[in-house]
Design goal:
Length: 168
Amino acid sequence: MKLLAIILIPLVLVSCAGYQMGGSKPSHLEHVKTITVPLFKNDTLLIRADSHATNSAVDALTRDGTYRVATASTADAVLEGRISEVDYSQVSSSRTDTLSSEELSMQITIAWILRDAKNPKLILQKGLSHGSTRFFARGNLHVARTNALPDALRRATESMTTQLADGF
């Protein structure tokens, strides 16, 4: 029994060596605890993409847990975003008509800037995030694109949150 305790105690102590509780924020964002997210701007013709992107960004920040989402008056930083580009490409076409798409891919680009809340001229970090999804183009193409939009935005905002929380 004594031998078992002598072996187990060092194993328990070594097993958590190097593990750190909490987030692993980039060093230049250590002072940022809370972020406010105003409505994203939309440079595309996608309807309601700005509100979908803002909601996706808030959800991604909340799920990650490194930063808390706050109001503009209490936040340490402001996350501004702009949906700058949306591209569609054909993934597969009809066997009988190569010009008729069966499956499409949507790629969305979000340009974002994290500014200091007290000094908005101070840019803490900025970058581009990309999100993509695939969808079938049967029936109404407009409805299919509209239904695919939240998924592509979710992927882009998750990429943005990873860059903010982990630095890469």
